Amino acid sequence: DAPLVESANAPDAPERIDVAFRDVLDVKRAVAWVKANARATFAESVDMSVHLGVDPKRSDMIVRGAVSLPHGTGKTVRVGVFAEGEEAEEARRAGAIVVGGDELIKTIKDGGSNAINFDACVGTPGMMPKMKEIARILGPRGLMPNPKLGTVTADVGAAVKALLGGRVEFRAEKNAIVHAMVGKVTFEDEQLEENIAAVFKKILELRPKGKGAPNASKYLKKA
């Protein structure tokens, strides 16, 4: 059975409603409603939010991970890679638009956030000690490579291709809510449903065993 989703609006509700109102929909109906109510002149993003029954302040309840969406995000991603030598060449062949070693670190260290022109980042194990110099610049923007997310790796080609192919990262925030982009309103219904299922499956895998119920409150919204 399709998991239930709480929508901020019922399918036939007026555009302005009481914010306390909630209508429970299955994923298929929720996706159809989100697409039918897209009003922007551009292709709006579809985001998924899952409220977990965990305390993210506790180290044993942190939920953080990444998943490759079967149909991608519909978003163009610029990938930067910190690597040298053959690994740098491999990153370029895979499609990274920014590749460098010491000189790239210096550029970002000197220029700060204005020198960042990528949306996702990969680093080789050998570059990570050097990247500590720019951790305070990359970290707050969610760009610091992390071995748990597969972005610290010697196989930079595979990591770059995964990011370009629709890999999304997520983390439970302080209010125990996980947010993830699952596509665009221009996607087919089935594509959005399969992307949602992939994210939800990964969250279930990473959820601390016996801690809370991540399907207690799940939302779809267009942005």
Write a structural description:
With 223 residues, the protein is α/β, with parallel strands linked by helices. The chain has two domains: 4-68 and 176-222, 2-Layer Sandwich (Ribulose 1,5 Bisphosphate Carboxylase/Oxygenase), CATH 3.30.190.20; 79-164, Rossmann fold, CATH 3.40.50. Helices cover 29% and strands 22% of the residues. It contains seven helices and ten strands. The chain has helices spanning 27-36, 85-94, 102-111, 128-131, 135-138, 156-164, 189-206; strands at 4-7, 23-26, 45-51, 64-68, 79-82, 98-100, 120-123, 167-171, 177-184, 217-222. It has a three-stranded antiparallel sheet with strand order 9-3-10. It has a three-stranded parallel sheet with strand order 6-5-7, sandwiched between helices. It has a two-stranded antiparallel ribbon with strand order 1-2. Helix 1 (27-36) packs across helix 7 (189-206) and helix 2 runs parallel beside helix 6 (156-164). The longest helix has 18 residues, at 189-206. The chain is globular and about 55 Å long. It starts with a strand and ends with a strand. Mean pLDDT is 83; it is low at 4-21 and 211-216.
Topology:
Blueprint lengths: L3 E4 L15 E4 H10 L8 E7 L12 E5 L10 E4 L2 H10 L3 E3 L1 H10 L8 E4 L4 H4 L3 H4 L17 H9 L2 E5 L5 E8 L4 H18 L10 E6 L1
Parallel strand pairs: 5-6, 5-7
Antiparallel strand pairs: 1-2, 3-9, 3-10, 4-8
Helix pairs in contact: 1-7, 2-6
Descriptive labels:
alpha/beta; Ribulose 1,5 Bisphosphate Carboxylase/Oxygenase; 3-stranded parallel beta sheet; 7 helices; 22% strand; globular
